[in-house]
Design goal:
heterodimer, A: mainly alpha, MetI-like fold, two-stranded antiparallel ribbon, B: two-stranded antiparallel sheet, about 75% helix
Chain lengths: ~290, ~260
């Protein structure tokens, strides 16, 4: 029965083919090949122009900044949160249900949370004003729609910290309840058993979670669209503007930005996949996939 | 079981829980507030204006909510069936290209949504799938599959196929051996796969907007302009409805999971 696995895989492979067709199409167009618009020369011009136009280069920097800062901080906080859940015995139950909430709340709603709390008329500004630390609404620093992108970063951290913790939880709690506690019974301090046994053995799950969060925050449209500055815009937002531009000759620029995002995320994936294969199996075979 | 006490970790956990629940609390208060001017820390008056706007707005919001829920349930069921099938192939068979498939199955998580969206949009325009529910369904499935395959592969591996093969040896037909022996054991995984795929579909904004044009009205697509339209009370009421409607279905899946244990 050699055809059995193929039969089982057929629906996924068909969707996969559609997926690859879409990506391939984006790449072909990014090299300036769009016969429908009478563009038939393969060229690297559009990629080169991204790096030559300061405004577009700024978009690259903005996206990298948002994704690196938010995913590094979310990973550190998420691992700490995971350790807190494991060491306080909250591996299941009500506390965990609360921690899971941000995973379920759409990014489009998280943006509103950030506006309610951190805008210049938001509750943080009001609290500081009530405490006499702020003279007027205008004195509160612009966290939203500013080129610091702080609002976007905070929104990602709020949403991704619990994701990291939940993703790593199964691995960390099983390592801790076996090897971690064994090390402590043999006289290791808790800090030492965590830093030398539990954390290193949980690292494959941590790197996978980091990779997912990094790729998402690098390429997602919603939060930079809702909370970002007018200029410079994050790559996905800028790419969409070029894509829907009435002048169809902007299309290759949109696709070149997409191509650039694709290269960055695939390089990250290849790097971490290589790392993961040394100590662990592929991501598709990980402990759990939230 | 040495249950250990760690006050710094407990404190951190407490801060995290407060920072998760506080915005939800503020959202509820704001959706019930009449006027809440600067610099007041509490609303001047409570009002049902926001809640009423849900019922009498420009859109029949409740109808969109139900159709959107139904649509995402279809995505969840299909993604789980496809994931279960693929997981069986990956776990129980050896074939050429297996490594490539497990490497490739995660790609939709890694590839940015705009790349997938714009690339596939052009393809869909040629195929006549843009601005259709089918087109949006296909894209949502692509986004949900990495998760459903991973979840189902885990549980399929844990359950194994020894009992199923034994049933077949004893003369039970292949299909019946799966549905009576293995399927009940897969149910916890099936439930988490369903809820994961549901959430991914239900909260998807950008891809639905791009592929669906204006014709596919999911709750996410209808909500965003309303939430960011200006009036904070009404925005909060809409956001609250959006959040609750996704949490309720997720909660029902969890409840079903608990019932089975």
């Amino acid at each position: 029965m050699k055809s059995r696995p193929l039969l089982l895989l057929t629906p996924m492979l068909l969707l996969g083919a559609l997926f690859l067709l879409g990506i391939g199409n984006a790449l072909v167009q990014s090299f300036g090949y769009i016969p429908a618009f009478h563009l038939t020369d393969f060229t690297l011009r559009y990629y080169e122009e991204i790096f030559e136009k300061p405004a577009l280069l700024d978009s690259v920097v903005v996206s990298l900044e948002i994704s690196i800062v938010s995913s590094v901080l979310a990973t550190v906080l998420g691992v700490a949160l995971c350790a807190a859940l494991v060491y306080t015995g909250n591996v299941r139950g009500k506390t965990l249900q609360v921690v899971k909430l941000p995973i379920l709340i759409p990014h489009t709603v998280v943006a509103l949370f950030v506006i309610m709390v951190l805008s210049q008329g938001g509750l943080l500004a009001r609290t500081l004003y009530a405490l006499g630390l702020l003279n007027s609404q205008k004195d509160f620093p612009a966290i939203l729609y500013s080129s610091s992108n702080l609002g976007i970063i905070i929104a990602y951290i709020w949403k991704e910290t619990p994701f990291i913790a939940y993703f790593v939880l199964a691995t960390m709690s099983s390592v801790d309840s076996t090897l971690g506690e064994a090390a402590e019974n043999l006289g290791a301090s808790e800090v030492r058993s965590f830093s030398q046994i539990t954390l290193p053995l949980s690292m494959p799950a941590v790197t996978k979670a980091f990779l997912i969060v990094f790729a998402y925050s690098f390429g997602a449209y919603e939060l930079p669209f809702l909370l970002g500055a007018t200029l410079p815009k994050a790559l996905p937002v800028q790419a969409y503007i070029e894509y829907i531009h009435p002048d169809l000759l902007h299309r290759p620029y949109a696709m070149a930005m997409n191509g650039l995002m694709l290269v960055v995320t695939l390089l990250m994936y290849g790097f971490f996949y290589g790392l993961a294969r040394k100590g662990d199996k592929g991501i598709g075979e990980s402990g759990h996939g939230t | 079981m040495g249950h250990r006490r760690h006050w710094p970790l407990s404190l951190f956990l407490l801060i995290e829980i407060i920072s998760i629940l506080m915005p939800l609390f503020i959202l509820i208060v704001w959706s019930l507030s009449g006027r809440w001017p600067w610099p007041d820390l509490a609303p001047e008056a409570l009002s049902l204006r926001g809640i009423q706007s849900l019922l009498g707005g420009r859109f029949d919001i409740l109808q969109v909510m139900f159709s959107s829920t139904g649509f995402s349930l279809v995505v969840a069921v299909l993604a789980t069936i496809i994931g279960t099938m693929a997981a069986r192939a990956i776990v129980f068979y050896d074939f050429r290209g297996k490594k490539l498939i497990s490497f490739g199955s995660i790609l939709p998580i890694i590839v940015p949504g705009t790349v997938l969206g714009m690339g596939i949009h052009v393809v869909f325009i040629y195929l006549g799938l843009s601005d259709t529910y089918l087109g949006v369904l296909l894209v949502h499935l692509i986004c949900a599959l990495p998760y459903t395959v991973a979840i189902m592969a885990d549980i399929t591996r844990a359950v194994g196929n020894k009992l199923e093969i034994q049933a077949q040896v004893l003369g039970v037909p292949v299909g019946k051996a799966f549905s009576h022996v293995t399927l009940p054991q897969l149910l916890p995984g099936i439930l988490s796969s369903l809820s994961m795929a549901y959430i991914i579909s239900f909260s998807q904004y950008f891809l639905t907007l791009l592929i669906g044009g204006g014709s596919v009205k999911t709750l996410a697509v209808v909500m965003v302009p309303l939430i960011y339209g200006g009036d904070r009370t009404i925005a909060s009421a809409y956001a609250l409805l959006f959040t609750l409607s996704s949490l309720i279905v997720f909660g029902l899946f969890e409840l079903a999971g608990k019932k089975m244990k």
